[in-house]
Design goal:
It contains 1 helix and 10 strands; from the N terminus they run βββββββββαβ. With 124 residues, the protein is mainly β. The strands form 2 sheets. A 6-stranded mixed sheet has the order 2-10-9-4-5-6. The N and C termini lie far apart (33 Å).
């Protein structure tokens, strides 16, 4: 399972950088995605990255305010978030997709190796 970290309390307009450490056994040509789930809402995709070539894909949920990146040696995928809003409050997760089909579409169904998530609260 993936291991997420970096969440916390931040004021509106602030920034956070989340990290996700993945298992080497899930990599090779896999895609890794960041998702979030707010209370009472469905899990939604944020961004996806190809672990081999670093290709990046963004969903509309936070496009323009986030950047996904990866460190192959550290097996870590990061999500830098800027200009955070109260509606960004959620638990943030990462997961892997061996083929990329679900990840590229921001569809949580079909993603594997979910972590327990890291909570982000945006509040003044």
């Amino acid at each position: 399972a993936a291991l997420e970290s970096g969440g916390g309390l931040v004021e509106p307009g602030g920034s956070l950088r989340l990290s996700c450490v993945v298992s080497k056994s899930t990599l090779d040509d896999a895609y890794i995605g960041w998702f979030r789930q707010a209370p009472g809402q469905e899990r939604e995709g944020i961004a996806c990255i190809g672990f081999r070539d670093g290709s990046k894909y963004y969903q509309d949920s936070m496009k323009g305010r986030v950047d996904i990146s990866r460190d192959k040696e550290a097996m870590t995928i990061s999500l830098s978030m800027n200009n955070l809003k109260k509606e960004d409050t959620a638990v943030y997760y990462c997961a892997t997709d061996p083929l990329g089909i679900s990840c590229l579409r921001g569809n949580w169904i079909g993603m594997n190796d979910w972590g327990k998530g890291t909570p982000v609260t945006v509040s003044s």
